[in-house]
Amino acid sequence: GNSVTQMEGPVTLSEEAFLTINCTYTATGYPSLFWYVQYPGEGLQLLLKATKADDKGSNKGFEATYRKETTSFHLEKGSVQVSDSAVYFCALRSDGGSQGNLIFGKGTKLSVKP
Amino acid sequence: EPEVTQTPSHQVTQMGQEVILRCVPISNHLYFYWYRQILGQKVEFLVSFYNNEISEKSEIFDDQFSVERPDGSNFTLKIRSTKLEDSAMYFCASSERQGAQPQHFGDGTRLSIL
């Protein structure tokens, strides 16, 4: 079945450091891929998405490229800020039939220190 | 920006009681979802709802659970005979369409079963 695997956290970085959170997936067909972010005490917010191979999603300085050959969708940011501290979830949505539900990874907690 | 709203933010209930979690999806959205996140675990899909009927449900969504759209704005999740293991964060989400369309999440209801 479809699944998402993302790197275990927590990840602790200093402000302005480079961030990578790895995400790989298993799916049939051509799923859409998403990164969601959950700030403390809040719900899930869509951060970025990509719907086909080689698409790059970007938002708020974060980027992720849909790599079908490596079944990956790694999240990157060149210079993190304290305000980026949150839990990040990689997710996929199947392209088949009525499969509208999102399948999430376990989440990676990011803490950015000043 | 339109939001998905959920009430209550925190619900404490005795084991064996029934609870109803409420959600108001974004007004022009047609697809509605419930997800669950047990503390420290991944976000899990429960059920999707479209055109006044369940379109998909997971193995978690057994006879203990039901969903309803009682009027034009609310979308509810009912849990009968609650168990300790039902304690979790429950997220409602909605989207305009399926496929690549992102799902917009509420802030969640924290359900604590005593």
Main attributes?
heterodimer; A: 114 residues; mainly beta; 6-stranded mixed beta sheet; 4-stranded antiparallel beta sheet; 50% strand; B: 114 residues; globular
What does the secondary structure layout of this molecule look like, with pairings?
The complex is a heterodimer of chains A (about 110) and B (about 110).
Chain A: E1 3-6, E2 11-14, E3 19-21, E4 23-26, E5 32-38, E6 44-50, E7 56-59, E8 62-65, E9 75-77, E10 86-93, E11 102-104, E12 108-113
Chain B: E1 5-7, E2 10-13, E3 19-24, E4 31-37, E5 43-50, E6 53-57, E7 65-68, E8 75-79, E9 88-95, E10 104-105, E11 109-113
Parallel strand pairs in B: 2-11
Antiparallel strand pairs in B: 1-3, 3-8, 4-5, 4-9, 5-6, 7-8, 9-10, 9-11
Write a short abstract of this structure.
The complex is a heterodimer of chains A (114) and B (114). Chain A is mostly beta strands.
Structure commentary:
The complex is a heterodimer of chains A (114) and B (114). Chain A has strands spanning 3-6, 11-14, 19-21, 23-26, 32-38, 44-50, 56-59, 62-65, 75-77, 86-93, 102-104, 108-113. In chain A, strands 2, 5, 6, 10, 11 and 12 form a six-stranded mixed sheet that branches. A four-stranded antiparallel sheet of chain A has the order 3-9-8-7, with no helix packed on it. A two-stranded antiparallel sheet of chain A has the order 1-4. Chain A starts with a strand and ends with a strand. Chain A is globular and about 45 Å long. Chain A has no helices and twelve strands. Chain A is 0% helix and 50% strand. By secondary structure, chain A is an all-beta fold. Chain B has 114 residues and is an all-beta fold. In chain B, 0% of the residues lie in helices and 50% in strands. Chain B has no helices and eleven strands. In chain B, the strands form two sheets. In chain B, strands 2, 4, 5, 6, 9, 10 and 11 form a seven-stranded mixed sheet that branches. In chain B, strands 1-3-8-7 form a four-stranded antiparallel sheet, with no helix packed on it. In chain B, a hairpin with a 2-residue loop joins β5 (43-50) and β6. Chain B is globular, with a radius of gyration of 13 Å. The mean pLDDT of chain B is 92. Chains A and B meet through β5, β6, β10 and β11 of A and β4, β5, β9 and β10 of B.
